[in-house]
Amino acid sequence: MKNNVKRVLSLTVLFLFAGILVSPAAHAAVGDRLEVSGANASLYADPAETSTELVRAAIGDQMVEMDRRGSWVFVSLKRTGAQGWMKTSVTREAVRKSVKSKHHVKKAVKNKALSKRAPIAVGLKTLPEVAAPASNAPYLARTLSLKDIGLTTGILFEGANGVHAQTFYFPAPLDSMISHGAFRLMFRASPNLLPLANVRVSINDVPQKQINLPADGSMHALDVRLPSSAFKGSLVKVTVTSILPVSDNRCFDGRLSDIFLHVLPESALSISYQPVEKSIRDAWRMLPQDVTISLSAGRLSKEQFASTLALMALLVDADKTVRITRLPEVGDIVIAPRASLDPVVAQGVGANKSLDGASNLVLAKFANRSAIVLLDPYDIQPMYLLDDTWKMLAAAERYRVFRPDNIHSHVEMQGAGDDSGFFALPLAKLGMDISTRALSKETNWHTVINPFALPMGTQPEMLNLNIVAPVRWDNDPTYELYVFLNDVLVKAARLENHGMKQHFTVNLPEEYQRQFNDIRIVVQHDVVEGNCEGVMPHDYVQITPDSTLVVKSSEIDAPKAFSDLAKYFLPGFDTYVEDSYLDKPEQILHLMSRLSADFPLIIDHTRLHFMAAGDVLAPEGPFVGVGHFTLSDDIVAPVRFDRGRVKITAPSGESYFDVDQLSKITIAQIARSATAYGLWIAPSDAEDLSKIERLELSEDDVAFIDSHGVAKTLDSSEPTLAEVYYPDVEDWFDVLGKYKFWLMVLLWFLMTMVVVYLYRMSRINKLAREDDDAMYQADEDQMQGGHAAHLHEDQMQGGHAAHLHEDHTIHPSSDLDHLDEKR
């Protein structure tokens, strides 16, 4: 009996003691208060003592738990706000300080003896370590910068008035186990800011860290450590918020334009995760910015070339930089036949030492890395499903279009019902965030309309914009609406003060449109009255979900510029490639993938044709030709290479450059066959085509391209600045065109001589007539004078008066014939 009692008491004490030890670990959770219990406690960047030591912590420093990983805990120090990983062996649950009443003090004195006899632990035990899950897979680190996600120039906040904010998203693994992460904000601010100027970083709408901006104009970095709990979902939402006051006078600050905070494009999010070896989705999502594609050695097959082109188009469209290499070097993606991969896979560690029997898309393990492998028969369709863009395309609701019912109530248009040719697409489905905005002085909405987001054969016509603006009193300043299309102001209007939904029709002129149309809507509040030291107004404004982009049916029968081809090619086209590029595909793949992303074009790899050098290009429909082909007789191209040397000359005949001598120049031009139009590209033999960062093809119909992009364009139909000339093949028209300047000078000289001759002859005839008139007048005066003298003589002799009535009129006679003789 006594032994049983002792055994029960021993077990009870053991369970109580074990409970005291285990309970803190069992209840450890995000938000628990901890404190440092051991000396030499430090915060580390990663959960490993080999990582960077961030800061030392003193005994008693309190902190808040944010995450736990094995024997490490992710904490935030309350005193400084520093974040990092700390060993759980040097932490304990924080002591909760409480004010004791007199009753409690007396009770403690009465129980003093009891406390001496039976000391009881107060719960200040060190938190036990939790064993990390056993795994042989290493942790990988991926870093994505703002530049990698498309913000190539970073973020610029300008102006000292108001609150600046910008949100962006980083992709995160979906299937893999995330250990931790970090966001580094790199910035530079104006040197004349007040000490109150600050910047704050929020992750998934939770504020993480805020600091005052150093007023020195130098570059600084703000590091925010993130636990695994921050990576829930497919995207990590990062928001940077800042205020930039310069003085206490709000009116003065509002008039300054030289205040800025520049968040540099090198700001980046780092993620440490343990990859799932079978998750192709995570491997695709977490590809680095610089992607390496490994191809098999030697000549590629046509299917391998086509699949590589389709995959590179997806990567380049996602702003990835792609490098092509050859096996046995293994890159992030491998596209090769099974036979050429077996020797490489055999060097790997694991069970998959052979790819026999594997599907054509696998995640294979090699000697020192894993890679996405695309095998013969090179079916690229699964990659489209992995890409986010194609996921959205597969969602019918996102691209659902409908005919606008109320379009006729806003604008006058011909046609009705199914014959109208107009469609309406919700702005929210086209990428515009139409959520409610807080408005003090200005707010804006922005989206870029991708041509592939529109129904086939349509182009933007106008915006049906519905907006709810704040209610104002009579003495409250006004609100204005501004709409920009590709940075061109196309609408400005004053918003009414009744607070009801207002409708605006915004025409989108065709002359301001491009392949990718940038639409920006701005609402401003003119704060011109009241106390400038007072509180800024804080109102709400929203573009309602029924706001739409109206597009109209449009077909281009004869594209005149490169920008017309993108729409002309939408129904589909054939691509012809010179088969010599199967031996050296690197340069041409870079050029064609850049063309696919920037032009833009969807090159159908199932309609890819290869032609031998010297074959005659004779397409039967819309086409894209890449190579130095011999054109059929019915193809008309501005620049022909089958006529010998090619010169680009000025209208005066002066030569700009010789095309055939520019071996590093790629020429793109619009060509016309008997039945359709196409794009013909004659690639150069340069080795740096992969350096092209952007291929802007919009204006004119001939473009000269080097490693920096489009160097020069010209319009062959209006050669006012430059024209194409073939010195080796000259006809009379070429000669006339070549020497037309001197011919014009000669023609002008001859015309001038004719005018001078006619003028001189006219002058001579006029002088002759004047001489004739003078001589005629002199002879007439002489004859009249002689007759008068004879009459006077008769009167003196006493002649009869009848003689005075005789007819003495002088009639022309042969006496004036001498005038004709003189003439």
Word description of this protein:
The protein is of the alpha+beta class and 823 residues long. It has six domains: 2-117, SH3 Domains (SH3 type barrels, Roll), CATH 2.30.30; 140-274, Jelly Rolls (Sandwich); 287-394, 2-Layer Sandwich (Chitobiase, domain 2); 407-553, Jelly Rolls (Sandwich), CATH 2.60.120.260; 563-738, no CATH class; 741-781 and 811-823. It contains 14 helices and 44 strands. The strands form ten sheets. The protein has a seven-stranded mixed beta sheet, with no helix packed on it. A hairpin with a 5-residue loop joins β5 and β6 (83-87). The radius of gyration is 44 Å and the shape is extended. The N and C termini lie far apart (172 Å).
Number of domains: 6
- Beta-strand percentage range: 25-35%
Number of alpha- plus pi-helical segments:
14
Mean pLDDT: 77
Structural class: alpha+beta
Report on the biggest sheet. 7 strands, mixed
State the end-to-end distance: 172 Å
Helix percent band: 10-25%
Which sequence of strands runs across the widest sheet?
34-33-36-41-40-42-43
